[in-house]
Amino acid sequence: MSDKRVYLYDSTLRDGAQTQGVDFGPADKVAITRALDALGIDYVEGGWPGANPTDDAFFAAPPETKFTHLTAFGMTRRASHGVDNDPGLNQLLSAKVRHVCMVGKTWDFHVDVALGIAHAENIAMIGDSVAYGAAKVDEILFDAEHFFDGYKANPEFALACIVKAYESGARWVVLCDTNGGTLPHEISAIVGEVAQKIPGAHLGIHAHNDTGNAIANSLAAVRAGVRQVQGTLNGLGERCGNANLISIIPTLVLKMGYRTGVTEQSMRRLTHVSRLLDERLNRAPDKRAPYVGESAFAHKGGLHVSAVEKDPRSYEHIDPELVGNHRQIVVSDQAGRSNILARFREIGIEVDPKDGKLAELIDTVKGNEFDGYAYDGAEASFEILARRILGSVPDYFHCTSFRVIDERRWNARGELITLSEATVKVAIGKRKAMAVAEGNGPVNALDAALRKVLMPIYPDLEDLRLVDYKVRILTPGDATAAVTRVMIESSDSTGRSWGTVGVSANVIDASYDALRDSIIYKLFSNGVASGHA
Asked: pLDDT tens digits, residue range 22-37?
């Protein structure tokens, strides 16, 4: 096949949500969708309408996207129903999106054992559902569940199922290695045979990683003709996970010469998107992840450092900046400079690379990161730090002191009562003010008290919302005296969202630092002048 365009389908919000220990909330789904849209992913599977309240809330008011086709996932009709009276199918097609992915059985073993229906009825269920859906939405995708196991067991039946989907109007027929047990040479051979029945321009691959071959299987399928690849960010997924799109994208583009919706510029966001997901899951990024890991382009001592300083190609398979990562030469005082300069370009800060303040910023960032700060996922805190060192952030306010009191008691009826109260003293120029507020927890109370003082002077804060709050223990060996990192995500009525970070042995102190940065970033990005008298 001469066509080099490969379409990317992300299933992080549905298949990835089936990962043990992963539980996305509505805010997570919106943020991840927006990140994938900015990256240039063709399809984002938002979830399964009707499966749970989170997915229902997401599809009731789906986020707007500029590039991505937001997609709903669900099943074909059931054997006991027609397409017009199957509640699950009609709820799927009623979601506020124009692209729908339907899953159906293509392994005779599953049809016999799991469904207990005739093979002809299974094929009819696929054809009826796809044709019904194709008349209602822009595109139908058909996920052929257990296709490779089915093909190896009964190729005639497996082919009959997917040909029926294609002939009934499916834009994409996706071949799923649902159990993850197929090997690359099998993928190549089977896809080659399938492509004799269905054009590769209408075929996709959905690989699981149970043998550690999900990425290799996906790439083998592309070489054999498929032109859609399904996967998840960082390889999230049930059991051993799905194919990792973070690794697949640069391999397809930079190594194999294929084109995707990810442009050269947006690929520089790849590391950011990978780490953004980890921050939302409140887990440490994999340092050794290909392309985007902290250690992916790290060099320490000896011959490696000497060779890399002469020509990075000696020990680097690509330029790390192509994927938004950066080189780390542990013994060099230049480590991180190029990454910080790249960040400056992204946020519109112009600085002379020889400016002494840049060296000061690099040293500060290194020191902060050693202390536990993480600026991936907290870009607003980084921008404030950078602009403050460069001398361009207004002095909006100073919180001269705050106090937080938590009370836990039982009332006369034996009911447990918890109450948080915060008192803040704030200086805005020569003006000083104090406020007291209660809240649902100490951070909420502290936020409410700050707003009492600040909003009369800075009404732009009216639409500031804190949408997520995460705490990570950085020194677990210290037990209750451990250092903590607090990440706060904020948004406003324009749809913007930004992250801030604070680090302290006192979780309330760390929370204040992240909260303060969020407020300052909101005011600065709105172009608000200092409210000093």
From this structure: 999 989 999 999 999 9
Name the pairing type of β-strands 69-75 and 99-105. Answer: parallel
User: Average pLDDT of 250-257?
Assistant: 98
DSSP string computed for 272-312: HHHHHHHHHTT----TT-TTTSTTTTEE-SHHHHHHHHH-G
Alpha carbon separation from 424 to 225, 421, 449, 486, 488 (Å, rounded): 64, 10, 6, 20, 20
Please answer whether residues 174 and 205 qualify as being in contact, where contact means their C-beta atoms are separated by less than 8 angstroms.
yes
Give CA–CA dist 70/75, Å, rounded: 17
Strands 398-410, 416-428: pairing kind:
antiparallel
pTM (predicted TM-score): 0.71
Q: How confident is the model at residue 479 (pLDDT cuts 50, 70, 90)?
A: confident
* Residue type, position 477, single letter: G
Q: 507, 370 in Cβ contact below 8 A?
A: no
| Torsions phi, psi for 105 (to 5 deg) | -75, 140
Rg, the chain, Cα only: 26
Which token pair is 320?
A: 């790390």
